[in-house]
Fold Bulb-type lectin domain-containing protein.
Amino acid sequence: MDVRNNPWIMPFVIFLCFSLKPHVSLGADTISANSSLSGDQTVVSAGKVFELGFFKPGNSSNYYIGMWYYRDKVSAQTIVWVANRETPVSDRFSSELRISDGNLALFNESKILIWSTNLSSSSSRSVEAVLGNDGNLVLRDGSNPSLSPLWQSFDFPADTWLPGAKVGLSKINNRNTRLISWKSKDNPAPGLFSLELDPNQSQYLIFWKRSIQYWTSGEWNGQIFSLVPEMRLNYIYNFSYVSNDNESYFTYSMYNSTVISRFVMDDGGQIQQQTWSASTNAWFLFWSQPKTQCEVYAYCGAFGSCNAKSQPFCDCPRGFNPNSTGDWYSEVFSGGM
Ligand SMILES: *[C@@H]1O[C@H](CO)[C@@H](O)[C@H](O)[C@H]1NC(C)=O
Ligand SMILES: *[C@@H]1O[C@H](CO)[C@@H](O)[C@H](O)[C@H]1NC(C)=O
Ligand SMILES: *[C@@H]1O[C@H](CO)[C@@H](O)[C@H](O)[C@H]1NC(C)=O
Ligand SMILES: *[C@@H]1O[C@H](CO)[C@@H](O)[C@H](O)[C@H]1NC(C)=O
Ligand SMILES: *[C@@H]1O[C@H](CO)[C@@H](O)[C@H](O)[C@H]1NC(C)=O
Ligand SMILES: *[C@@H]1O[C@H](CO)[C@@H](O)[C@H](O)[C@H]1NC(C)=O
Ligand SMILES: *[C@@H]1O[C@H](CO)[C@@H](O)[C@H](O)[C@H]1NC(C)=O
Ligand SMILES: *[C@@H]1O[C@H](CO)[C@@H](O)[C@H](O)[C@H]1NC(C)=O
Ligand SMILES: *[C@@H]1O[C@H](CO)[C@@H](O)[C@H](O)[C@H]1NC(C)=O
């Protein structure tokens, strides 16, 4: 059938074009110069693996721009990246994520800029943000997509390390790509604990308040970290260490690419490897370090005592009271008493 000869098809096609709104439609993987995201709109990676939009963590009343697995992959909303960790909004419908001055930028209810990718202004009109199936949000020049990214979320992780991302050091701009825990389940702002590459050796360190080191993986010998012997039994993660003139980092892939897995620097101070179990619809804790919560530095604060056998783990000596009862019961123990 020749379309041009059929008078019924043209009006139908025109109707379809008018019904496309100049907004991100559900399902698109790109925010381009003429589109924006607000309210319940989201972008979804091309293969429907990751989704990006406003979310509300735990019992918080604040909204953040975050990334989570698409619901067909992981049914429990699991945040793997947060943009505006320290600058939430309260009304997602009047806030807007869009391209502005060559950057991806978030404007709050008063149309004030509260988060941005912070690149020095580029004149390119075709900058766009694309959400990849690997969970990397890439800002690129849409007129030349094969050039290296202008900015990517993999360089600015929150508490989660996804397969394919790097955790390490850039020798060019001295940037340390580290995982930093959330403050609490309700607050994704940078918390007390961080996992980072030792600048002097090929090993990971966990820090409390970025200054006191309380765990080390031991050096990488090409196969395992020396103080993590259980890695010998590892049959799911393919780790590799790269060190050259420009950067040093670890990265990993999954031997079975259909397995959904991630590392999280947990708000309790442990680094955790979790894999999604589709049969139980829950995350399965595959591995964590330090082994027990009581080995986390200052977990119970200045005078608390930690008891690995009790739940909750922290206890106050007789005569002391928890300093902040609210925090204490929401399990932020390191406030002391
Ligand atoms: C948005 O911009 C893109 C690229 O410049 C263009 O292809 C598309 O037609 C535009 N969409 C609308 C709704 O204006
Ligand atoms: C939210 O509040 C409810 C009731 O107070 C509590 O049971 C739940 O654990 C809280 N969730 C988070 C993530 O804090
Ligand atoms: C938007 O952000 C600005 C700057 O942080 C702040 O002063 C203003 O109160 C915010 N608007 C709303 C409605 O929260
Ligand atoms: C962007 O720059 C401002 C001012 O230097 C800074 O406060 C903010 O944290 C930066 N944002 C990001 C996402 O790096
Ligand atoms: C790395 O080496 C430098 C110089 O010897 C030292 O000052 C620094 O503390 C070391 N860093 C760590 C994390 O050990
Ligand atoms: C493991 O990762 C390395 C480096 O990325 C890669 O060359 C190798 O093919 C991977 N091995 C398997 C079995 O996937
Ligand atoms: C280091 O960076 C420079 C400049 O971007 C590049 O030409 C070179 O190939 C890089 N070297 C390695 C080992 O990646
Ligand atoms: C990969 O994992 C899936 C479950 O996630 C399983 O069904 C499949 O058999 C695995 N493939 C291999 C080659 O082990
Ligand atoms: C107790 O809490 C207050 C307010 O949060 C804080 O200023 C103080 O430093 C805390 N005391 C200790 C010993 O942590």
About this structure: The mean pLDDT is 84. The helical segments are 9-18, 325-329.
